[in-house]
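Lecture 7 notes: from sequence to structure.
We start with the chain below.
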Amino acid sequence: MKCYIDFYYDNNNELVAEIHKQGKHKTVTYKRHVNKLIEIAEKHGYKINGECRIEDRVITITQEFDRYMHKQRNKLRILGNITDDLILSRIDPTTKKKIAMGTLVAALTIGTGIGITQTMSNAETTITTETETVNDDIETTTIAEDIKIEEVENNSDLDELLNESSFHYSYEDRSNDNKINNCKRYEDIFEKYAHMYGLDKNLLMALSAQESSGDHYNNLYNGPACGIMQIEKQVHIGTNTSAYNFNTNNMETITITEDSLNNLDTNIKIGAMLLRQSIEKYNYNIPLALQTYNFGQGNMNKVLDTCSQQENISVEEMTNTPTYNNWLNYRNFLNIGDPEYVEHVFSFLENKETITVLDRNSKQIKIKLINDYEKGKHY
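Predicted structure tokens for the same chain:
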């Protein structure tokens, strides 16, 4: 499949880059990131003075650029952790960004050694807190700010950070398809186990629509996988599976039997447990957990190993970074399963904006979904 990079001017006469690789493409618009891509290309013998196309050494150039982008996200991840702890829901987005930027400046000022290397000039921040009581005697913190920050170029990075739990995909909407409507016949069961295992009900139903078209009874005996959640019989029958149960606040373990897979209710339960297990294993990286559900753990390990070698990043670092999804580019080489499984599942979602799961402390972990299909970015 042909790989190339197009540089062209947008409607604002700004130079942007469009990377085409492995059947997908992404557009680089932020000036600093475009300049970095140009710098890398020039290091490999190209001279970029305006609109042009690069067709040689594209893989090498883009791998180096991806490593650069990954480092930028890592530098700002501490800021994401800080802003998660602030009560910002009643503050407008502009103020939220100012507080986040101010917090980063404060962290740099006190020299905490958190590994952020970016600097900002002429930045002052004063953040004060006061406690107030709201409904139901819940104590919360309101943040009053007096922040003066010079406009700097890395505001674009801050925009990316505050939305770094976003996931772009491109697929025609199937939320009204008969397959998902079939699943809705059992919505109460999906809701029961979504609540029990801290999952998103709509995500469970979308997974089932992709796996079995929402048909349990016609998928019991006609293949290696069983039932509405298509549990692999040879892999799972006779094994134990465990997942955190939010009803009991304890780990739950069950033994998978053929009878349990043939039963509609327990088939959904086991599928929910297996998905929950993968979501925790991969630090709440929902796309990675979904692809594992389809590929199986052994095949998913091969994808991650390949990505690790090509991207010069350890598997441990990948799986401990819930927003790292470069492994998506390495799904096709296996020639097994559905390499676009994540996108196919998301295409069935009725709620297209966010997916929400819980960590063990019942904190909501959200991923924002952005479908580029309507924008003409068909992968």
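Points to note: Residues 58-84 form the longest helix (27 residues). Confidence is low (pLDDT under 50) at residues 76-93, 106-154, 156-164.
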